[in-house]
Amino acid sequence: ARQQARHVPATPDALRRALPTTQGYRLRILRATDLPMHTTFDGRTFEFQLGVSLYDEAHGTFYGNTVYSCGDSYDRAMAAQRRAVDLDFSFDVYWHTRISDPRCMAVVEVIMMERSADGVVKGRYALG
């Protein structure tokens, strides 16, 4: 029910290329490397997550559902030393659509989540 409430239909466009039937797609994201970190961790616990949305460049709008990966931890000592983070996600996103237009694309966002000691998410920070 939550995902249906967040669904945004694609904007109608007579010029958009469409297929006669829906086509299935898969986007596989294995890792993000050398993600720069310009902050101190000062004992706080962070996890990283990916968000994937579909974007229509011609209309400047997102459409469909946003899908989120599970949280991924990182090597805190290595991140502090290098001022960068390496993440292993192995995250697959599946969707189907009739739209087949190069102006429509998947957008991936890296999100840093701060967790309290009891595991509750205290903050979510978009990293781009």
Report on this structure:
The protein contains 2 helices and 6 strands; from the N terminus they run αβββαβββ. The two termini are 28 Å apart. The strands form 2 sheets. Strands 3-2-5-6 form a 4-stranded antiparallel beta sheet, with no helix packed on it. Strands 1-4 form a two-stranded antiparallel ribbon. It is elongated. It has helices at residues 2-5, 76-82; strands at 18-36, 45-56, 61-68, 84-99, 104-115, 121-126. The longest helix has 7 residues, at 76-82. A hairpin with a 4-residue loop joins β2 and β3. Helix content is 9%, strand content 57%. It has 128 residues and is mainly beta. The mean pLDDT is 80.
Which ranges are low-confidence, i.e. pLDDT below 50, for 5 or more consecutive residues? none
| Share of residues in strands | over 45%
How widely separated are the two ends?
28 Å
- Helix fraction? under 10%
Largest sheet, in brief, is:
4 strands, antiparallel
What structural category do the secondary elements indicate?
mainly beta
Average predicted confidence as pLDDT: 80
Net shape: elongated
Number of strands: 6
Oligomeric nature of the chains: single chain
Evaluate the radius of gyration: 18 Å
Strand line-up of the largest beta sheet: 3-2-5-6
Helix-strand topology string? HEEEHEEE
The count of helical stretches stands at: 2
List the helices and strands and how they pair.
Blueprint: H1 2-5, E1 18-36, E2 45-56, E3 61-68, H2 76-82, E4 84-99, E5 104-115, E6 121-126
Antiparallel strand pairs: 1-4, 2-3, 2-5, 5-6
